[in-house]
Amino acid sequence: MELLRSPSLPLPLRAFAHRRLRSAGGGGNATATYSEAMEKTVLAWKAIGIFDSGVGGLTVLKEVIHTLPQEDTIYLGDTARVPYGTKSPETVIRYSRQIARYLMNRDIKLLVVACNTASAVALAALQQEFDIPIVGVIEPGARAAAAATRSGKVGVIGTAATVASSAYTKAIKRINPDIEVVNRACPLFVPLAEEGWVDNEVARITARIYLEDLKRQGVDTLVLGCTHYPILKEVIAEVMGPEVALVDSAAETARTVAQILSEEGLLRPECERGNHHFYVTDIPAGFIRVGNRFLGGELGDVYQVSLEQEQEGEDGEETY
Questions:
Q1: Which residues are catalytically annotated?
Q2: Whole-angstrom Cα distance, residue 46 to residue 109?
Q3: How far apart are alpha carbons 245 and 242 in whole angstroms?
Q4: How many Å apart are CA 8 and CA 189, to the nearest integer?
Q5: CA distance 141 to 206
Q6: Which residue stretches of the chain are H helix?
């Protein structure tokens, strides 16, 4: 109780904690109740961590900001080692662990693996190692696809590594084993999205080459199984036709994050407005150029960091 009165605790935090105590009622051990309220209050004001191999995860960040505008976020793009889709599972797990430790050192309350490749091969390892909620992008997309399909035939497009992992197929079949899943790797969608070629003839020809076989096979639901692909949603929808539902894993992931934080009592007050911080592992210029396109606005400051220095117990050097 004395901690709640402490002048060192910011006024919004103290008010938030008092509201928690009032809503919890007066029963039970008062000291334990106060302690739990304070712990939840401090946790609620921590940031959401989000990482991807590069800029694609900004589509997830955009949906998180839209769904939870009151929350702070910390985004890390591993631009020095992109892409992950061509790396071995062991390498992706090692990279993901490095990034997760970096973000944990920045005191996050939840981690979003905003990379389909890392979600496919590293999510379980991260969930075993760290004791905060960790959300991938595959399970939310799989749930939405299983709920959306009418014919029982779902298409999944993604990187070669995501398709090879069969992660979406396994996730969808855990929900409904009767659903038929058809996978297709679409590697050229990533450079098209990053170049901003999302509404021209090159994009349309590429989409037709990749997607017409899926259309012929009669899928009625298509999962955009790479965080770059929502940028190409209009062209993909044009090729697939209005009878095919597109599932954006980014939007579904944001809804999952909101649900978890709500259930855990870790949402910040809705009257707040979040701050957003960006880190990359290579020179920020390219990330800023493409990132502004992905977010539809100014990124603000983007800092370059060294994950290797962080691993050695040093503060990663941050530069503009």
A1: 115, 226
A2: 6
A3: 7
A4: 50
A5: 24
A6: 2-5, 11-24, 30-44, 58-67, 89-104, 116-121, 123-129, 138-148, 160-165, 167-175, 189-195, 201-216, 233-240, 249-263, 284-295, 307-311
DSSP symbols for 52-70 = ESSSTTHHHHHHHHHH-TT
The domains of the chain are located at: 2-44, 47-136+253-311, 139-248
**pLDDT the model gives residue 14:** 47
Query: And the tokens for 81?
Result: 């080692």
47-136+253-311 sits in which CATH class?
alpha beta
Q: Does domain 139-248 have CATH number 3.40.50.1370?
A: no
Binned at pLDDT 50, 70 and 90, residue 28 comes out as low
* Averaged pLDDT score across all residues of the chain: 87
Q: 70-109: per-residue pLDDT in tens?
A: 999 999 999 999 888 788 889 999 999 999 999 999 999 9
DSSP 226: S
Count CB neighbours of 166 within 10 A.
14
Phi, psi of 113, deg, nearest 5: -85, 90
Angstrom distance (rounded) from CA 51 to CA 54: 8
With tokens 């800092």, the residue in question is: 303
Q: What does the alpha-carbon distance between residue 294 and residue 193 come to, in Å, rounded to a whole number?
A: 9
Whole-number Cα distances in Å, 279 to 55, 217, 316: 11, 42, 11
Contacts of residue 224, Cβ cutoff 8 Å, sequence gap at least 6: 141, 157, 230, 233, 236, 246, 247, 248, 249
Output the pLDDT for position 19: 54
Domain 47-136+253-311 identical in fold to domain 139-248: yes
Check the CA dihedral 148-244-202-181 and report its sign.
Answer: positive
Determine whether 224 is exposed, middle or buried from the number of CB atoms within 10 Å of its CB (0-12, 13-18, 19+): buried
Largest CA distance in the chain: 68
